[in-house]
Each structure stands twice: as structure tokens, then as C-alpha cells.
Design goal:
Blueprint: H1 20-27, H2 30-41, E1 46-47, H3 57-70, E2 73-78, E3 81-86, H4 88-94, H5 98-113
Antiparallel strand pairs: 1-3, 2-3
Length: 116
């Protein structure tokens, strides 16, 4: 895991430290999957405050930490905002097709359940 170099830097796993079971665990939660779906369609990094999740702020923070520590997202401070983006290249190199398959399945499920 790359360690934080300053108080505002966040630790992320290096590509070779990302594990399939961690990624699958991170993607198994509906709130975290919702975050990943939003990031997948975003044209740029999104701030944590851009997400409207029906959970408390502390729970939202937990979900972002799980996604970051599993290697699904990268978080970086820009000023006072914590910005988020998918680690699409890293996940694609390690698990080809996994992210796209999960996102497609989530979209189909949302359509089927009327929650798109």
C-alpha cells in the first residue's frame, strides 16, 4: 500500500496489491456500487459532496474508504475537496472485463427494478 506522504495524502494500494476478493467485496454493497456507477459515467473526477447517498455522512465516509482501500477508486485532495475517480486502468489490467461486466449487470438490474 502506498503510504500517505502528507497529512492530506491518502494511502492507496499499488496495482500489484489489489486483490480480487477486496474488489468484489467493495462492489457487493449497493451504496458503493452506486458510487462506482456514478463515477463510471462521469467525465471528470467527482467530489465526495457530489454524491447524494441515503446514509449518514460517517457511513458515506466508510463506503469511500472501502472503495479506496480495495483499489476501486483513487481519492485526492484538491484544495478542501476530496476528489474521486475510478481506477479503471488498474482494474482492467488486473481483471479484464470485470468492471464493465459489473457495471452492465448493475444497469440491467436497475432497469429491471425501476431504480435507474
Amino acid at each position: 500500500m502506498t503510504t500517505a506522504t502528507s497529512p492530506r495524502a491518502l494511502a492507496h494500494p499499488a496495482r500489484d496489491e489489489i486483490r480480487l476478493e477486496g474488489v468484489l467485496h467493495a462492489l457487493s454493497d449497493p451504496m458503493r456500487l452506486r458510487v462506482v456507477r456514478e463515477l463510471a459515467t462521469a467525465s471528470e473526477e467527482l467530489s465526495c459532496s457530489d454524491f447524494e447517498l441515503p446514509v449518514t455522512k460517517s457511513t458515506t465516509t466508510h463506503h469511500f474508504r472501502v472503495l479506496r482501500e480495495s483499489g476501486v477508486i483513487r481519492q485526492i485532495y484538491r484544495g478542501t475537496a476530496k476528489m474521486n475517480c475510478l481506477r479503471r486502468d488498474d482494474l482492467g489490467a488486473l481483471f479484464p472485463g470485470l468492471l464493465d461486466s459489473v457495471l452492465a449487470a448493475a444497469a440491467r438490474e436497475a432497469g429491471r427494478l425501476g431504480t435507474a
